[in-house]
Amino acid sequence: MIPLRHLLIGDEHDLPLLSSLLRTLPPDTVGELVLELPDERRPLLPTPPGVTTRHLVLGRGRRRGDRACAALEAWTEEWLLDEHLRADAHAVFVGLTHNPKVAALCDRLAAQHPTLHMHRPSRVGSVH
């Protein structure tokens, strides 16, 4: 069964994998692509019409992963409510495999929401 909503979060290191994933999504896919970037450059990744793209620039004083974690936490607060907790409701891809803060948040979310369909790339490029 195809999930109702997709969330893809990554940084500049995840762009090739995100591009590949986006090419596999059906044209009627709905969701968000969130990119945490070190500067104002905005890579253009083609997305289905129902997928919006947000660019989160790190800015001074922010550590890598801070904005991605904030976005993921905000998304879970909005979408992981009782009426949206079916296993087929969402598919989540979270990159930033090099970031321990992101990994800890993903582990916590997986424990809190065991039916959440979440994927993380391994350090060698495959997706779990």
UniProtKB/TrEMBL annotation:
User: Which species?
Assistant: Candidatus Brachybacterium intestinipullorum
Give all residue intervals belonging to the SIP-like Rossmann fold domain.
5-76
Protein name as catalogued: SIP domain-containing protein
What phylogenetic lineage does the species belong to? Bacteria, Bacillati, Actinomycetota, Actinomycetes, Micrococcales
Stored InterPro entries = FNR_nucleotide-bd (IPR039261), SIP_rossman_dom (IPR007037)
Superkingdom as given in the UniProt entry: Bacteria
